[in-house]
Amino acid sequence: MATATASSITTTLPSSKNRSALPLKLSQLQNFCKRDPAGYKEDYDAQSRRLVSLVGILLISPNADPSPSLVELIQFMAAVSSSSYKGEESDKVASLLMDLLVGSSNGVQELGIDGNANLHSTLPSAALLLHRDIRKACVSALILMRNKGAVPPLRLLQLFFQLMAVVSDKNLRESLYHHIVNDIRNINKHGKRDEKLNRTIQTFFHRIVSASANESVPGGEDSPTDYAAKRAVQMTCDLYRRNVWNDERSVHILATAAASPNASVMSRALRFFLNIEEAMALDKKSAEDREWEGHQTVNLHLHSKKTKARARQVAKEVKARQRKQNAREQHILDQREDGDVDASKKLFPAIELLNDPQGLAETLLKRIKSSGSNTYKFEVKMLMLNFVTRVVGNHELLLLQLYPLLQRYMGGHQRDVTAILAYCVQSCHSYVPPNEVHPLLKTIAHNFITERCSGEQMAVGINAVRAICSRVPSVLADDDGEGDEKVASSSSWDVEAFVRDLAGYAKHKDRSVSIAGRGWVNFIREVYPSLLQGKDRGLVGTGLHRAGEKPLRFGELQAASGVAGAELLAAYEAHKKAAKSQCVGDLDNSGEEEGSDEEGDDGWVEVPDDGEESEIEIDEDADESSDDEAPELTELGEDNAAAGKSEEEPRDVSQLSKEERAKLQQQVSSTRIFTTAEFAKMQKLVERQQRARRDPRLAAKLKREKAKGNEFADLSDDDSDLDSDEGIHISGAVNPTDIMADAKRKRMSKAEKLQKILEGRQKWEAKERAGGSTNIEKKRKKSFTMSKFSFEARKKRGDKQTARAATKNKHKLEGNRDKKRRRKV
């Protein structure tokens, strides 16, 4: 038996001999229980009964200050039960601590994770009455038992989650949050995923978010359920960012949160959908940089004592660094060769995994239109507009009520109007009717592209119009209606006048406006050059105008008969094969000539002609026998021979008609499987053909090269010339900086130049550098007597003395020479 005191106990050591009673602390008893669990089971039971009695006393008055030994006893029971007596004893301790937090004996049964439990009925309000030290000790003990595997995860998840909703202790909430996230990460660590447990936890999170969405009121105060929903959304976002829960169920939880009336819950979900790809890309890049920096730094012990152990360690680190460098270079080469394959392995944007994007966009749009000025802040409304327009652009939805709403926010005095114009751009796609886009363009033109606006506003308006027209090119297409419909459309929207009006801003006095106008002119030259005047079409526009280039009308679709550029790839490979065979033939001819010369010189001229004839006869017999065995395959073989001949011989694709070219493209696309390198080559060939179509000079150059037989001389076999943009590009997103005025330096006036000169003079007159004068300035002010014996002076003097000594020795040598004596006459 043992008698417990405040911080120690009195126990008799188990032995056959009689020993005196020794006072032991709880830490010593914990060590003895770990060494001999069976021998100290009675002492453990005594401490267990003591804990039950202290907890009963605490439940009578939770607000009272606890005894100092209770916190230590809770930690002792959690550590010993989870390590030495795991099983029934650990379950009893865990149930006791949960009852203490809940405040009832049946609280643990109420906290079961099922679909019928209500969140309000299971909120542990008793945890608010406990002392903060006791509450923290209970939570720490349960976390310790969970980390040792003594408590299942589902048993603690809901209790900890609900504690976060009611407890005002910030540090405790953060520790609970990090424990839940790390626990779920450890469950799914190293590829060992527990899908059943993940599904149960995700169902619990979705139930909390749904309860918050059903009970919340727009503009109302946050309830404990709303705070729990915030934490659920935050955990789901964190686990998705760490690639633990990147599936459709997590996206469905966040989509439910995005439809919640609570502003904070909705904002967290919307920010996730808008920024998750960029955040994950930055995390991946920073992790790679940290890993590379860790391998790059090698302690060479240059200033340490040289030992064999340190030499081995240095050699090991150098080898690891070289191995990492080789792996990094190989990874770069693989990305260069299989760029498309690597891109296909990337994570799909979370916004693409939405189950019902149309319903979600309509819900948020209805909430924006119905909410007043006091319901949501302006920043929240902008976030909702950004998400709705992104969903419409990514999924190509038809949400016609969106575009009149955007016109309300397109005033020149509107706050964050550049961001609204960017949202307007990203909401447009090729399936939007032109009649819905025309009012947008008119509103932008009336509010931004006028002489009363500033240069920056005009540049932003022109860039926004260009971006919208590039996404909806059918706006510029001609209306082929007849009669009254054509007259009505021409009276409401004159495309040619609108295009030429904006093209006139290319010669504006403001530089940013002129840059935006030139961008508009270049865009129209590429898409529909017939709308421009002849003087504005340029060389590229004139070539496309002659070719009849114009955008497709609304609803018109150009079906592809094969892979674009397949016929060009066939022509390129045939030309390359013909050039290679010709080169091999030339080498063979030169080798035969050299061989005949050598044979003639050495005398090896005799060749058995009969042997050659016999070999030829054997081949002919074999062919005849094969023809006799399968005479019905003769016609198919002729077709194959003709096809092989056509593949071997280079074909001029430019001489084929449109139907023949489409047939060849379809034939090549259906008879072979293209690799990643071949797709890249076809892309280069198509871009080359399009440039030649736009530029008559390039077309004439290619024609001259074709006459010389060097049609594909400018194309290389490697993909080193492909553009490798390492920037982060999110699908469907439009950055407001893309349509802003170009920040070019404007030409300064005479007054501005004079002001800059005066500012420069003042800057140099009054030194802005902190501290005294530099050493160079001090040296410049020294007298010559102080500096003539300096190191630099002595060095210069030494050089001069050396030169003088060399000259003196030279004169001495010349003086010692024997000169001819001259006699006096």
What characteristics describe this protein?
single chain, about 800 residues, mainly alpha, 3-stranded antiparallel beta sheet, 34 helices, disordered N terminus
Give the proportion of residues in helices: 55-70%
Query: How many beta strands in the DSSP annotation?
Result: 3
| Structure classification | mainly alpha
Residue runs with pLDDT of under 50 for 5 or more positions: 1-22, 105-123, 339-346, 481-491, 596-648, 718-727
Q: How far do the termini sit from each other?
A: 144 Å
Oligomer kind: single chain
Output the radius of gyration: 42 Å
Largest sheet: 3 strands, antiparallel
Apparent shape: extended
Number of helices: 34
Instruction: Give the rounded overall mean pLDDT.
Output: 75
Beta-strand content bin: under 5%
Q: For the largest sheet, list the strands in their spatial order.
A: 1-2-3
